[in-house]
Amino acid sequence: MSPPPFTPEQVLECARTIRSFLPELLPVDRVESMDRQLANLLAQAKAGETVGASILEELKSHPATRDWAAEFLSPQIMTKGPGDSQLPGRIDAIAAPRYICPEGDYVWHRRSVGMAIPSCPTHPELGPLVPAD
To answer: Does residue 77 contact residue 64 with C-beta atoms inside 8 Å?
Structure first.
């Protein structure tokens, strides 16, 4: 049996990261429900449950999120180093500062200095996201 193409932590990171892109990927009427489902699955993972397969099933439920997750989880992209570029037209997440929810269920990349740092949609009471590093 061959090893899985990616680790459980990579699947969790994919779920954390895609949440901030859902408004760009999904019709307006689907964003909230998928975001809520991913937040619930990430909370279950934090509680020690194995949810990788459920996250992947949720992401496969829409073509745009399926394609985004496939690209995010691609071994070629996962192993790129600083300065390497991703596919044409894609944002180079490596170069963008990474912000996280203190509860660990939301990741956001600041793509320009002018972008205001948002709060986690699941935990807005915690205030703006914090730098990951």
So the answer is: no
Question: What's the pLDDT band for 87 if we cut at 50, 70, 90?
Answer: very low
- Alpha carbon distances (Å) from 107 to 3, 4, 52, 99: 27, 24, 17, 6
Return left, alpha or beta for 48; rule: phi > 0 is left, psi -120 to 50 is alpha, else beta: left
Strands 107-109 and 130-131, bridge-based pairing: unpaired
| Spatial contact of 102 and 83, defined as CB atoms under 8 Å apart | no
This prediction has a pTM of 0.76
DSSP 55-92: HHHHHHTSHHHHHHHHHHT-HHHHT--TT---STTS--
- Torsion angles phi and psi, residue 80, rounded to 5: -65, 145
Residue 24 has pLDDT above 70, yes or no: yes
pLDDT higher than 50, residue 92: no
